C-alpha cells in the first residue's frame, strides 16, 4: 500500500500552529516513515500539486483569491483538516471590529480605496471540513493523536471534557471560585490547561465543548465582572461562534 | 497503654519510611487519594503488532499516602469495597495492594473508619497512634514511638457536619432522591439552570469512579494501547452509545444521574450512599452548588409529601 499523501497549507495567520508541528521533532521523523508529506511550504523545498489524501489547513482566508484556493484544495483532498483557532474558529483575525476597519481603510489608504479584504471566518464557512484540531496554538500531542487515529483507519473524536478536567490535574485553583473570569468550563479540553497554569484565563481557543452550558456560565460571569469584559472574553476566539 | 509520637518526630519518622516507600503527602492536593490507585489516565495493557502479544502494564510501587481528613480515610475504605465487588478491579488492586495509608488527623477521633495507621492529635506536641492492621503495625519504629499509660489529652472537636448525620439514614436519602425525580421536583430545573456540567464535582469526589476507555495506536504503528481515564456523568459523551444515541440528553438528566448513582443506586448495590460528606464537591463547584443543601431540601419535601 502506498503511503498517504499529506499536504499542509496556510492562509492568514501567524504560522504558530505549523511551528508546533515542526517542534514534534523526532516524532515528525517517525510520522514521515508512514506518510508522504508532498506539499508543505514551511517545512520543505520540493512541493507537489494535488490531489492529496489529507490536507491540513492553518489560518483563514481573508481575500477572494484565498477563498478560491481553499475551495480548490477541498476538491483535491479526500480529508480536509483545520489546524488551529484561525482555521477552526476564525481565530485572531476574526477579533476585528468591522466598523473600525472601514475607518482605518480611509485613514491608511485614502477615500478612493476599494477594500478587497473579507471578514475572517472559520474554514467551515466556505467548505466542508472533516475535522478541527483546535488551539492557539494547537497542542502538538493532539496533532499526533488525530493523525494516529486517521492512520489507524478510525474517525478521530473531539475531546468530550472541559478544560477543567486538565486544570484540576494541573492542581490549579479555580479562577471562577476566585472571582476571576474564565471560559474553561465551556471549552473543549486537550490543551492541558496551559494558560490557567501560567496565570492567564481561558479564552476558549479550543472552541466550545460539545453540550457547553454557555448560559449558565454567563450567569456566573455576570456576577464577577461587567458586560464589556464578558464581551471581550467571548470575542477573543468565539466571535464567529453562535452562543 | 497508648502509643505516642511527638509532633516534631513525625518528619524524621517519614524520612526513615521513605527508604521503603514513596511517601506522598496528599494533604494539599486538589484531587483525592483515589488518583494513586485509579489514575486520571492510565494505559492498562498494550498489544504488540509484531509478536501479537498482550502485555499488562504494571505501574505499581510501594507508596505511602499521608491523608489528613477522616472523611477521606473513610472514603478509601468504601472505594476498596466498590473496587472489590462484583468483580475485583485488577488494575486498582495492583497498585492498592502495595500501598499504605497513614492518617495524620488534627481532630479527636472516636473510631477511624479507614487507613492502616492513624495518628490523632491529642495535645499541642503529641499524636496518639491507632493501629488498624498489620500493614499499619509494620510502620511503627520503636525509635519514634513511646508507650504512655495516660497521656495528656485535649479534645479537638471536629467541625459540625449536619450532612454527615443525614448520611446515616441512607435509606431515607435514597427514597427521597428518587422521589424528587419521579415527582418532578422543581429543584432539578433550578439546578439545570446552574450546573456547568464541567465534571469538577466528580473529579474531586473521593468516591466517584466512573471511567471511559480509549484505544490508542502508537505513531510508528508498532503497538496499540488500551487506556482508561476518568469520566464524568455530567458530560454529554458519558451516556452516549454506539450509533450516537444519548440516554441523558440534557444537563438536567445528567446532573440528576450523579445524585442517582451516589444516593439511590449505591444504596441498592452496597447498602449505603457513595458519599462521606467531605464537602469537596461543594468547595470546588464553580457554579456554587451546595450539594448538602440540595439533599436537605429534597428530604424536607419528601417528608412533607
Describe the structure in your own words.
The complex is a heterodimer of chains A (243) and B (305). Helix content of chain A is 37%, strand content 12%. The termini of chain A are far apart. Chain A is of the alpha/beta class. The mean pLDDT of chain A is 94. Chain A has helices at 16-22, 26-32, 64-76, 84-89, 98-109, 140-151, 163-169, 194-197, 214-224, 227-236, and strands spanning 5-10, 36-40, 52-58, 77-83, 131-133. Chain A is globular and about 60 Å long. Chain A has two domains: 5-151, NADH:ubiquinone oxidoreductase-like, 20kDa subunit (Rossmann fold, 3-Layer(aba) Sandwich); 163-236, no CATH class. A five-stranded parallel β-sheet of chain A has the order 2-1-3-4-5. Chain B is α/β, with parallel strands linked by helices. Chain B folds into two domains: 2-148, no CATH class; 162-222 and 231-304, no CATH class. In chain B, a hairpin with a 4-residue loop joins strand 3 and strand 4. The longest helix of chain B is centred in the C-terminal third of the chain and has 20 residues, at 251-270. The model of chain B has no long low-confidence stretch (mean pLDDT 95). The chains are: A alpha/beta (243), B alpha/beta (305).
The CATH architecture of the largest domain in chain A can be given as 3-Layer(aba) Sandwich
What order do the helices and strands of chain A follow?
Answer: EHHEEHEHHEHHHHH
User: What structural class is derived from the secondary structure elements of chain A?
Assistant: alpha/beta
Strand share of the residues of chain A? 5-15%
Order of helices and strands of chain B: EHEEEEHHEEEHEHHHHEEHHH
CATH topology of the largest domain in chain A: Rossmann fold
**Shape of chain A from CA axes?**
globular
Quote the average pLDDT of chain B: 95
* Structural class estimated from helices and strands of chain B: alpha/beta
User: How much helicity do the residues of chain A have?
Assistant: 25-40%
pLDDT average of chain A, as an integer? 94
The coarse overall form of chain B would be: flat
The end-to-end span of chain A amounts to 45 Å
Strand count of chain A: 5
Rg over C-alpha atoms of chain A, rounded to the nearest angstrom: 19 Å
